Amino acid sequence: MRYELHDGRILTWSLETHVVTHCNLRCVQCCPLSPHLPAWAVEPDSLQADLTRLARVLEPNIFKLTGGEPFLHPNLPAVLDAVRASGICEQVSVTTNGLLAVSAPEAVYERLDRMTLSVYSSAPLPEKSLARITERCEHHGVHLTVKRIDAFQQITPEAPLGSDAEVRDVYARCWLKVRCHLVHQGRFYSCTRPPHVATVLGPAHPDMPALAEVDGVRLDAPDLLERVLGLLERDTPLATCRYCLGASGPWKPHAQLPRAPRG
Ligand code: SF4
Ligand code: SF4
Q1: CA 47 to chain centre
Q2: Which one, of 156, 40, 35, 149, lies nearest residue 98 by Cα?
Q3: pLDDT tens digits, 83-118
Q4: 92-96 and 58-66 beta bridge pairing
Q5: What pTM was computed for the model?
Q6: How many folded domains does the chain comprise?
Q7: CA–centroid distance, residue 199 to ligand 1 (Å)
Q8: Distance of CA 197 to the CA centre of its chain
Q9: Is the distance from the beta carbon of residue 97 to the nearest atom of ligand 1 less than 6 Å?
Q10: Where does the Radical SAM core domain start and stop, copy by copy (predicted)?
């Protein structure tokens, strides 16, 4: 994959950030591993600082607030203001399961350009809620995309991939490295997996490298443009790919994990 530059900034399809890691659902094979992560919410000031740095070298077509479930963030309007103030992108979107979007404050809808609503067959959003969200989006000029999802693709393998050839093949076939760029806690990643795979699978694999560091570019690097471009255009797999199936896993009916026992 090769990228074009415009005024010294790399043109990309999209950039996202996980505004929270926790979620009110527990989807099997959740790509950001939300059901297995501790609760965490981004600080708007810290996100703004990261995005201001990144905006000097990156020009995504759209910026997405994802998670976890973004509407669990205690101050989503402040997060949206931080994104705007950074100048990273004009189009700002939120990706949600919709369960809390029904009752979210007006201040969120006023600050959004787009919303992607994932309606899962294993935890369907009531049609009445969908109608209300549609009405609120129309009222605020928010472009709504509804995705009905009844299957998931396995993305986390049962065990690390055994051969280098398998890892290379998974990386070569993976579209997430083009469409799911992530900014998270001071680093840029070409996909959403490295920091969370490290947190969730790291304890069971003592030989695992520090994925969040080796597969992420620090935003305070002096040669940020070259490093980000090098990451995006690399032909060799990430260290994380050994613990991931990317877009190569089998499809299964959508399902929820059992509720975690209360601690
Ligand atoms: S709604 Fe999204 S973030 Fe939440 S568990 Fe399901 S896939 Fe993961
Ligand atoms: S870790 Fe590798 S295979 Fe997994 S999503 Fe990222 S680039 Fe794709």
Answers
A1: 14
A2: 149
A3: 999 999 999 999 999 999 999 999 999 999 999 999
A4: parallel
A5: 0.96
A6: 1
A7: 17
A8: 13
A9: yes
A10: 7-232
C-beta of 21 in contact with ligand 1 (< 6 A): no
Rounded distance, CA 32 to CA 22, Å?
10
Please tell me whether the peptide bond between 8 and the residue prior to it is cis, using omega within 30 degrees of 0: no
Q: Is 18 in the pocket of ligand 2 (CB under 6 A)?
A: no
- Ligand 2 nearest atom to the CA of residue 155, by list position: 4
Q: What does the pLDDT look like over 19-41, one tens digit per residue?
A: 999 999 999 999 999 999 999 99
| Domain assignment of residue 137, yes or no | yes
C-alpha–C-alpha distance, residues 189 and 19, integer Å: 15
Flag whether 128 is in a domain.
yes
Q: Is 91 among the domain residues? A: yes
Residue nearest to atom 6 of ligand 1 (CA): 27
Q: How far is it, in rounded angstroms, from Cα 212 to Cα 210? A: 6
Closest C-alpha to 251, from 171, 149, 165, 148: 149
192 occurs within a structural domain: yes
241 CB under 6 A from ligand 2?
A: yes
Q: What is the span of the domain harbouring residue 61?
A: 9-253
Q: What is the CATH number of the domain that holds 159?
A: 3.20.20
